[in-house]
Design goal:
With 111 residues, the chain is mainly β. It is built from no helices and ten strands. The chain is globular and about 45 Å long.
């Protein structure tokens, strides 16, 4: 984590068939994290078998020392975003994957 920034998690999705980015390049990407929750690192994403986009990231709340939270949020195929969920209050080394049966896997080290 870089203590000199307020880094956040952002996303764009490319429709490979149409060759179109959403949000379009040249415009502001969609911010998926909340700046009030602290700095973000290790943003990861995966699509599940239904086409939902899952994002997970590590977030260190300001003033909480070395505590790193694992957060998750997803966008359904209609473009609606879920609320942000805290998966772990003390984790790191995050990875995310989805399988063909619709399950999303978040792996991380619990500190």
């Amino acid at each position: 984590f870089d203590s000199s920034t307020t880094a956040q998690a952002w996303v764009r999705v490319l429709d490979v068939t149409a060759g179109i980015w959403t949000p379009r390049l040249g415009s502001t990407a969609k911010q998926v994290s909340n700046v009030a929750d602290g700095k973000v690192d290790r943003t990861r994403c995966a699509f599940d078998s239904d086409g939902n986009l899952h994002l997970a990231w590590q977030q260190r709340p300001d003033g909480e020392g070395e505590t790193i939270k694992i957060r998750h949020r997803y966008q359904n195929t209609l473009g609606n975003w879920s609320d942000i969920s805290t998966i772990s209050e003390d984790g790191s080394d995050l990875d995310v994957s989805a399988d063909g049966s619709g399950q999303v896997w978040l792996g991380y080290r619990k500190d």
